[in-house]
## 1
Amino acid sequence: MEIPEALRGLREDPVVEVTLPSGDRALLVTRYHDVRSLFADHRLSRNIARPDAARISADNELFVDPNIDPDPPKHTKVRGLVTRAFTARRVEALRPIAWRIASDLLDDMEAGPRPVDLNEAYAFPLPIKVICLLLGVPAEDRDSFRSMVDGFLSVTKLPKEEVARCRRDLWTYLGDLIDSKRRDHSEDLISGLIRVRDEDDNRLTEHELHYWTQGLLIAGYVTTASQIGTGTAVLLHRRDLVAQIQQDWSLVPSAVEELLRCQIMGSSVGTLRYAVEDIPLDGYTIRKGSSVLLSEESANMDESVFEDPFNLDIRRKENHHMTFGAGLHYCVGAALARMELQVATEALLRRFPNVHLATPGEQLPRALGGFMEGFTDIPVDW
Ligand code: HEM
């Protein structure tokens, strides 16, 4: 349950060559200010549907879609259609709903047998219910889309054929969903995107509508669920921190930010970029044609930005971590994720003041081989 040692010396070099799970090579940018500025740099393209670009997985074309232009100006326009649904004001309006969902889940936990797997009982259902509500996806579909999404995000977990089947099934499921929403004229986010698509062919193609629906559904819960699970596990492992929060609930937002910064167990492989020009960087040159990973994890541990970065300090001020990225692709759902994480943490610690891990933190089984690496089970008791 410690921050990986490998992150300590990483920033001595601004760029480090790494081998991806596919066996392909890529360049990892390590320093905070470089990571931040390159997130906003047009010389790094998110379009990795190129024959000479590295692949994250040998068995899964993760983030590769030749029918999508993921770079400005096209991307920025489409993204603008979505971001307005996730403004801080709209997200705040959802906070009481998230509290109600959390309370209902805690009621169910209380009524059932113990110990309970926090992932299944709480960390996953909470963001899934919120995103289903926002997007207008029937909540009863969640079991079926969860297994498809799990396959969709496999890096080494599933064989190629299984990944391909999950990707196909998910695409078909979303197509059916969009068809049914076209008929029922609701007020949710997918219906809004369908209206934009149907009113003006130039603003959103059918493929883009499909792609963004898929992206929002997946990004809308997988990351948040993993962070609720791993962040809570880390907190419960550190009872001293739980006690501090329970004495002063105003610490919840800074605790959530610090757990996001440290991402101790829930980090992801990250999204690849491709250098379309040479990029000089602190005496090094990222050559045109290189595949590049901007390391949020390394940036978040940069001693020149964060005081005592390896110390999990839930009172940390000015915590401008990179966990939601920055710049051109800054996480659309950052405000939503923050709100859900705050609600999830506070609701759990208030309901069950003595909540604790039923398995020692060091023995929690890791979820490996997927895009997000959290824990498979987090048994808790109270
Ligand atoms: C703890 C939770 C979350 C984390 C750590 C996270 C992290 C990130 C990061 C690092 C990026 C940037 C990727 C890049 O630059 O290549 C991103 C993009 C994105 N996130 Fe999140 N995210 C979270 C929750 C959410 C939620 C709740 C949504 C809601 C719908 C969401 C939707 C998106 C979308 C659509 C993008 C793509 C934006 C673009 O390409 O312009 N994320 N996220």
## 2
Amino acid sequence: MVRVTTGVHAGGHEFISTAHEDQKFGLSVVAPASPDGHGVDGPSPAMAALLAVVARPELRLLGIHSHIGSQILDPAGFEVAARAVLELRADLAARTGVLVDEVDVGGGYGIAYLPGESALDPAHVATDLARAVAEAARDLGTPLPRFSIEPGRAIAGPAGLTLYTVGTVKPVTLADGRVRTYVSVDGGMSDNIRPALYDAQYHAELVGRASTAEPVLARVVGKHCESGDIVVHEVMLPGDVRTGDLLAVPATGAYGRSMASNYNLLTRPPVVAVADGSSRVLVRRETVEDLLALDVG
Ligand SMILES: Cc1ncc(COP(=O)(O)O)c(C=O)c1O
């Protein structure tokens, strides 16, 4: 497939559409302007790549691919991108007679990280996208393509949670007089880099025991030597949260383990599958021997 950029960017609640793309992925569907600024100067980089593939008998063009962003909560961006890809497909067919079978608009389907947050509903998105693709294909006078998507986070994210053990607990009085309780845990940015990398927001719950203590404003932090090593920026936790308690952070199944590191030589935690009251280790806990195994001499 040829990866194209349609000018549609999405993430969070909004999507934006711009002609030009300033990013490393994909080839633009926008043709370069002619030197006089009144027309176009040859095919777009995407079309040039498609034409080059079609011209080479040793290559088989399977489809056109786009991926507009991640954690998208407004499905309109997918429809705009799908139409742009279908237009490119129709243009290629008009130029060469080659009608590519497959159109793939990638992933990015947003999930809920915090209580009360809404996720994209796959059934709705699928219905709306199918309609938008059918409309675009009809408008362009081209047969329907095989249409595919690549949901990553939407599958893996909600399926996982991270279980931490509380280390030290420290109340800090802020300048405005509020008290924030720092709750440290036995992990952090090495098992979830997203808060430090994207300011991603997570939730935490005390699990393993019930507490009726008055909730306090808390910040869950890791054990790394970085003050930005934050797991949850702000969450209300029972005021008696203490060393040895278990904290669960939901929706960490995507971009958690896969982005994990051994920073500060922390060993990565195991991955345990849990269902119907039983559990099974899928990936065992890393050991110091694992860390030293690559050392030479
Ligand atoms: C080409 C492509 N497809 C699918 C995905 C999955 O995205 P998400 O996990 O946001 O659904 C990515 C993520 O970067 C991607 O680059």
